[in-house]
């Protein structure tokens, strides 16, 4: 008996299913782009705005962190970039009248989609203790409220300063400076939930927590492995780069439990030929079981070791450490166990090996499919082992390529948004600004939630993002947020974090990337760093959504003056007036930013130094690139259970829902779907179209339930299931995190499917 979807969601969630598509982008994508953009912005504004995305004198696309090609087309059409822009440049507005009409209790019952559709925030809004309506307040009053709460804490460590990844370098630098002058390293950020595992693994093994390839390297590679990533939806411009790499002779191996449209076929909307034919990007598709990647790479490493002449011995001898221990572990890799862990066949792995051995220059790209598991850090370390074996780091056309998410998430970390800052960074801050920064480690996202839950943190301040929806274990997180004294969100759009609040709450509306930023010294630009460590300027041109908006740097500077007062010797007023003065300080504090202002004047921007890439120097504890030898792990499933990954549809940007379709996966008009392999579904007795509850099972014995998901028979790997985030965050236990990086394991949740209404 099929149950019914819950009626509580005001959005009519009635999924229709047509089966997966094989081709991504092309003309239909352009059509969708324009339709979506015009609904939000109108025709004229659409044309003017989209023409400025990623142009030399324009703004950086607020979508993903994929780098710009050197020769930028006018409007390099990217459907999802355009949606991100339209979402921000929309003409819809949320005014004080809106809040008068909608009490918070009402907002808390709305879907994230509905909240986002209301438009741009226009005024600072305050929710007083016990009140049910936000009311407009002046900026002065808003800063007074934050100051009142911050200065009455028993310790600065009772405050949390979260950052999402759209924040510019300038705002991020000021924000961490303020938090540290205030006295805490509690700077959790979205990266904790995202590529933290990559940073942890790369820092330890190659000494730099960032990718080691530039765009040119992709064009020169012989082999590109794309593992745990869905570029057709999340990094569409990457497909053009892969297409170019292929034209230059590269082969591509895709490792994914799902066949994802863009990797199968890609129609490049920039070229007439690409439009007509569409290229198959993937040469070998390894449809892996969720969490099987470490086992796969371990076995490939064993096979490389067993092949005469396959190891780059000169590189290994000169540049690496830990080879003996690693080879011992790798030689013990077992075929049978690997086939079980990966669900692959022997001939597929043999074929992969042939391609690996035929390649002199190999790049491995990855995203959330590798970073959000319990054993993510050892998995990424195994990828590093794989590349080191054949000397594939610090050589043109080769290297590690973690593909970042938010457009400036990498830059924010470079600017010091980190709960565990390096002592050298704090020394530099101390020297430049003449205060003693706190030295103890702060809370990351998961620890911040626990701290609020346990009343150890009482003020939550967010520079962007949507903390309650993005975080794991929604019910736990929401209860934790509600315990706070004050929650503050610097935001462009309304989201659930504005409705699930502390005793008091503030919404501080801010300028987006697309908007003109006028300060005392004139029009400002900001800077961002992409996934490949290129830094460049971003300049908004649109009229701000409201005359009451302040820029993120201005908000931080005014707040800092109000909270820190005379005690701070930092020239906050000057920083607010002229962002170039902020960049002058960054230049003196952050290595690689020497002459920042002069260099960023070059429209192409500049590359940050990367010792392993540039000079095969590995600034690790051993002074060499480290091989590692962790035991192989993979998820083991109890009978009748599936391993659920929580992922993005084609119509969302993280917690921002653009629409209810996932075109490439053939799903329309609904998000409460769970994709299940037809064989598994048959064994579980779940016909396509059945409504089920997803129930997550974790060792704490707590039952976490997401009701009313329509089963969709879908060609995912056996034993695996997929459903969208954030609807399924309720299923991810707070304590289920990656070892070392503490990233929520949102790609490996053990679930059982119960027919809705049966129990
Ligand atoms: N349009 C759009 N663009 C975005 C975003 C967005 O929401 N919308 N989000 C941005 C952000 S913050 C990020 S971090 C990135 C996210 O970019 P992605 O990492 O591409 O995002 P996900 O949707 O989480 O997709 C995870 C992919 O990994 C695969 N996968 C899952 N588990 C495994 C596994 O165990 N092994 C392997 N090999 N594969 C696995 C899934 O099938 C899926 O293809 O995109 C950024 N860009
Ligand atoms: N289950 C599960 N959970 C996940 C993931 C997953 O794959 N599965 N992915 C994780 C990942 S990779 C990430 S990065 C996090 C994302 O976590 P967050 O970064 O916290 O979430 P977003 O949805 O990107 O934030 C959207 C909000 O940011 C605000 N915003 C947009 N632009 C701006 C701006 O320019 N300035 C300011 N101040 N605010 C702005 C808007 O108000 C909008 O509502 O979620 C994580 N959570
Ligand atoms: Mo992310």
Automatic annotation (TrEMBL):
<feature type="region of interest" description="Disordered">
    <location>
        <begin position="1"/>
        <end position="24"/>
    </location>
</feature>
<keyword id="KW-0004">4Fe-4S</keyword>
<keyword id="KW-0408">Iron</keyword>
<feature type="domain" description="Molybdopterin dinucleotide-binding">
    <location>
        <begin position="642"/>
        <end position="749"/>
    </location>
</feature>
<keyword id="KW-0411">Iron-sulfur</keyword>
<dbReference type="GO" id="GO:0008863">
    <property type="term" value="F:formate dehydrogenase (NAD+) activity"/>
</dbReference>
<dbReference type="InterPro" id="IPR037951">
    <property type="entry name" value="MopB_CT_YdeP"/>
</dbReference>
<comment type="similarity">
    <text>Belongs to the prokaryotic molybdopterin-containing oxidoreductase family.</text>
</comment>
<dbReference type="InterPro" id="IPR009010">
    <property type="entry name" value="Asp_de-COase-like_dom_sf"/>
</dbReference>
<keyword id="KW-0500">Molybdenum</keyword>
<feature type="domain" description="Molybdopterin oxidoreductase">
    <location>
        <begin position="120"/>
        <end position="492"/>
    </location>
</feature>
<dbReference type="InterPro" id="IPR050123">
    <property type="entry name" value="Prok_molybdopt-oxidoreductase"/>
</dbReference>
<dbReference type="GO" id="GO:0051539">
    <property type="term" value="F:4 iron, 4 sulfur cluster binding"/>
</dbReference>
<dbReference type="InterPro" id="IPR041953">
    <property type="entry name" value="YdeP_MopB"/>
</dbReference>
<dbReference type="Pfam" id="PF00384">
    <property type="entry name" value="Molybdopterin"/>
</dbReference>
<keyword id="KW-0560">Oxidoreductase</keyword>
<keyword id="KW-0479">Metal-binding</keyword>
<dbReference type="GO" id="GO:0043546">
    <property type="term" value="F:molybdopterin cofactor binding"/>
</dbReference>
<dbReference type="GO" id="GO:0030151">
    <property type="term" value="F:molybdenum ion binding"/>
</dbReference>
<dbReference type="Pfam" id="PF01568">
    <property type="entry name" value="Molydop_binding"/>
</dbReference>
<dbReference type="GO" id="GO:0016020">
    <property type="term" value="C:membrane"/>
</dbReference>
<dbReference type="InterPro" id="IPR006657">
    <property type="entry name" value="MoPterin_dinucl-bd_dom"/>
</dbReference>
<protein>
    <submittedName>
        <fullName>Formate dehydrogenase</fullName>
    </submittedName>
</protein>
<dbReference type="InterPro" id="IPR010046">
    <property type="entry name" value="Mopterin_OxRdtse_a_bac"/>
</dbReference>
<dbReference type="InterPro" id="IPR006656">
    <property type="entry name" value="Mopterin_OxRdtase"/>
</dbReference>
